[in-house]
Amino acid sequence: MKEFELINRYFKGRGIIRRDVNLGIGDDCALVTVPENCQLAVTTDTLVAGVHFFDDISPRALGHRALAVNLSDLAAMGAEPTWISVGLTLPEANVEWLEEFTEGMNEIAEYFNVQIIGGDTTQGPLTITICAKGIVPQGKALRRSGAKVGDWIYVTGPLGDAGVAIEARKQGFNIAPEHLSYLNNRFDYPAPRVAAGQVLRGAASAAIDISDGLLADLGHILALSQVSAVINVDKVPVSDAVNASIPRAEQFDYILNYGDDYELLFTVPESNKSMVDMKLRQYGVEASCIGQIKNGVGEIELLLDGEKFNYQGKGFQHFTKEPV
């Protein structure tokens, strides 16, 4: 199959068609209309075989995952997802693989009312690059730089699931089938917290999605907000599957250091705390308060059962050999 045959068969005319797309796939550029009094939020992520996903991942899960991690960035800004562009590098144009991959991508795109409006295809090592766009009311985007001393620190859901799934595949942990299925699903099919992000607009002071680990991503908020934090490690939510599969003493690397959970980490002023709890519950999100913003610049104090907890992990970074 040649390049333009591939585009016409698997991308052009598939999925939802939004009314704000004036010109989609098929020209040199797409044309879209940004609503009045809104800003355009744009994010780009690249997924590389052997770095961001296992070689044996199903194409459907890969299609879902590639889009989900970008939608999670939009969620962290409180944006409504609207359009995506797809850059796809393939070793070969495998028809069965493409059918399943685009099905996975279209499923999540349709769920969040997102239209694929363009991109590029080329031959080479398997790599997927997504550029996702969204809209947010003028001046209402959530940012990393707004946390203030006294704000409470929240996460939208359990941490460590993806990390345990990754290590289970690498090391062959003995995990009960029902727990392993749940953990693998959390890694392969992440659920971006899009609705929660929009609820937090105007209520949260800062936000980020957890892609590189709790400590690493909290560090970004602290650096840009010029504050410090105290985290109660025992308050960080952990799934039943992790609790049943990993001894407590071995869970800390997963809940503090591993990324890929794509939950939102956010800060809330005391005055908005009750309102945020109530509104998130209306969307089925039981957010957990795990700490508080303190004076200082960039320091993270960890407490475990009320006592100081010494932990040296740093989270994930590309282009470094530092231990995590």
Distance between the termini: 43 Å
- Please identify the structural class as seen in this structure: alpha+beta
Largest sheet: 7 strands, mixed
SS strand fraction: 15-25%
Low-confidence stretches: 317-324
Order of helices and strands: HEEEHEHEEEHHHEHEHHEHEEE
Q: CATH class of the largest domain, anyone? A: Alpha Beta
What's the number of extended β-strand segments? 13
General shape: globular
Sheet with most strands: strand arrangement: 8-10-7-11-9-12-13
Function: Catalyzes the ATP-dependent phosphorylation of thiamine-monophosphate (TMP) to form thiamine-pyrophosphate (TPP), the active form of vitamin B1.
Binding site for Mg(2+) 3: 28, 73, 209
Keywords: ATP-binding, Kinase, Magnesium, Metal-binding, Nucleotide-binding, Thiamine biosynthesis, Transferase
Binding site for Mg(2+) 2: 45, 73
